[in-house]
Amino acid sequence: MSAQIAETQEIKVAKKPAEALLSKRRRKLLVDPLNDDNPITIQVLGICSALAVTSQMLPTTTMAIAVIVVVVMSNLIISLMRNIIPSRIRIIVQLAIVASLVILVDQVLKAYAYDISRQLSVFVGLIITNCIIMGRLEAFAMGNKPYDSILDGLGSGFGYAWIILTVAFFRELLGSGAVYGMKVFEAIGLDFPNNGLMVTPVGAFLILGIIIWVQRTKTGYVEK
Amino acid sequence: MRQSNAYVIGFAAILTVIIGGLLAAAAVGLREPQQKAVKLDTRTKILSAVMEIKEGDDVNQIWEERISSLVVDIDGDVVERLDDGTAVIAESIDVGKEFKKSPQERLFPVFEFKGDNGEIQNYIIPVYGNGLWDRIWGFVALEKDLVTIKGVRFDHKGETPGLGARITDGEVQDRYIGKKIYNNVGDLVSVQMMKAETGDASIYDEYHVDGMSGSTMTANGVNDMLMRYFRYYSNYFKTIDSADQDEIRKAEQVDEVIEDQQPMKENVQTEEVQ
Predict the structure, then answer these.
(1) Which residue ranges does the record assign to the FMN-binding domain (chain B) (predicted)?
(2) Rounded to a whole number, what is the distance in Å from the CA of B6 to chain A's nearest CA?
(3) Which of A16, A111, A203, B196 could form a disulfide with A198 if both were Cys (CB 3.0 to 4.6 A apart)?
């Protein structure tokens, strides 16, 4: 996946003094990753966890929150440290920061959301290797101010979150006939057979493919 | 200046110390809630073998009111203290660790579930064994006759999702309800999960349950696990007054049993699966 990190590097933004809190440029930082530059569907990063954890809504929501927290916090920390990080070991420093944040998230989940942390199992730990995070650090936080980096992190985090939540919604609905564990089809009195395919990662591939298809039809994005 | 080797090494060292300290502090600070979470999870699993646990139920309170526990050895004698004098607490026994010892040295926890009138209604025992890919474990709740199964809860580490992992499904676990582990002549027969899945529970007798299609190896592991643990606990079962002694010890109605057993004999796997 490292080849794709290069793609993210085009988003280098020039520094300007005294800007509005949500100027047009900053809004772009926040909104772009939601659609036009979505980390999953356009940059094709973070696919692994998008396939693995999305069979139910609840763990997916937790995963989304965890990724948002980690990407925002690591963007902020790296951005604050960007002028003192020796460039020769910058990747290692980024990795150390991300890994520490992920371990913190994992520990907190184990303490306060034990069930969900068991369902997510290794995938919380694997946030470390989620290319979205390292990609944002290297491409954005290393060269931008803290506040901009937070916005960028929020943008990327939510860009990741809405995609995996959409995938999880359809997988849980079609695979288990439920949303957040609530049996919707039973509730409205419909006898809907569960689709076993949707419970497996194959279902995630299909739904992700459909999302990308719809999105690219609308935005007209073509891979060069 | 900033790029000198000394700066790089110094930076790395300071970063390591700060991050290491932070993580250590977090680990220590969160240890207590984590242990609480694990304990609550175990209690929920044990209780859910005998009763429906709903979201929002105060599991700890139910536990305090309903559960009393003890520890026995392979001979059925109650163990209160270890050789070095430390008290034995059933809840803190790691069944997985005990599993590595020889059965003679193992400690076996028993959880007694009391009904509304304070009398013991069910006995819950932990079970542990090998599935197809990795370890499987669970809790089996027996009625006070110690013959009939009240409910089971299985869990696993790495069984195939959609196949062997179905042992955690309520639908599969419910198949065990009302089954018997001793036959009428007092032999321990355990409950065998069959090969292949018919979806028709009515064709099985009291000692067999419907299989899971495509997961015979996991089912074998479950069968083996149940058989072993019922055997380990059988000496203890004999010491309990409410136990159905007729079924556990004495031989009666021999012919009926042989009829029951015959047609399924060929599929039953009782040999040790390692």
Answers:
(1) 131-233
(2) 11
(3) A203
